[in-house]
Amino acid sequence: MQNTASSPFLRTLKDLQKSYFQEKQVNFGIKYSEKNKETPQPVFTTDTLDRVKQFGEFGKAVEIYVNVYSVPKFISYLWECDGKPISHNSAKYELNYNPTIVVDKIHGKEVQLDGYNVTLSIRDLKADNFANYTVTLKSVFADLRHTIILETASVPETPGNFSKTATSTTTITVQWDPNSSGGYKQTFYIQYRVQGLLKWRNVSAGDEDINELKRRRTYELKKLREGRVYELRMFSENTAMKRSNVTDILIVFTDTSESTTSSAVIGPVVGVVVTLVIVCASFIVILLIKRSKGKI
């Protein structure tokens, strides 16, 4: 066990087991064995439950997996493809499991637990290999099952809503909305050039993991030339080396220092003029008051 000593509600191994299991019981409806209420049945970790879909490519090998917390260890396991059992080792498949540290959450706090990584390797993927794979863990308790949908990795979709948000004399800030990554981690790239030039410059504008929540992204291009017209476009590329189409070209002007200087000069001038107007108006009012009293 790791990273548990600092949590006041996790004092011992038994407390950890019971606390972890009780939360899973609430979230997933798992029940204690009537024979032994001190020890829970195996449970799949949250990262496994979040990865219902996994991805592979035609003609290549893929490894699909689940992470499980099991104390004591499960007795055996079985993989099935669309309901048909898979033999333990063959020219097509290889089944394995290894002790590993699994990460999960208890009462909203991340903990590391001694668990197991149960894997199924599939060689030379064909069309009929993209199917539903179910792993069954057998223990002294009821069987525990989890199904993974294996889909073909695809080209990522073009980023959406690519637009300008701000400019200065040497910078342009843009925003976009990530779309489908094609089943792999994707990296966003912005291309830009001064209008009229042929060569594009590329800059990496960040990545997105496959389980990361979609959110609007922004990026600031720096060290640009002032008062120039720039052409910008972007695309994404995933770790399967598949690239999206580029966005439409965005035309953006950087600011000029003349406009900034003019604003800096105009401001004080306007202030002086307003002050003079106020002084003159005050002087006229005083003269009118004196005249009305017959002093002039």
Automatic annotation (TrEMBL):
Q: Does the keyword Lyase apply?
A: no
UniProt xrefs under CDD domains: FN3
Q: Which SMART domains match?
A: FN3 (SM00060)
The answer to whether keyword Nuclease applies is: no
Q: Which UniProt keywords apply?
A: Membrane, Transmembrane, Transmembrane helix
The record's annotation in InterPro entries points to: FN3_dom, FN3_sf, Ig-like_dom_sf, Ig-like_fold
Q: Enumerate the Gene3D superfamilies for this protein.
A: Immunoglobulins
Q: Which residues cross the membrane?
A: 265-289
Q: Which domain of life is it from?
A: Eukaryota
> Residues in domain Fibronectin type-III?
158-259
Mind telling me what this protein is named? Fibronectin type-III domain-containing protein
Species annotation: Mytilus galloprovincialis (Mediterranean mussel)
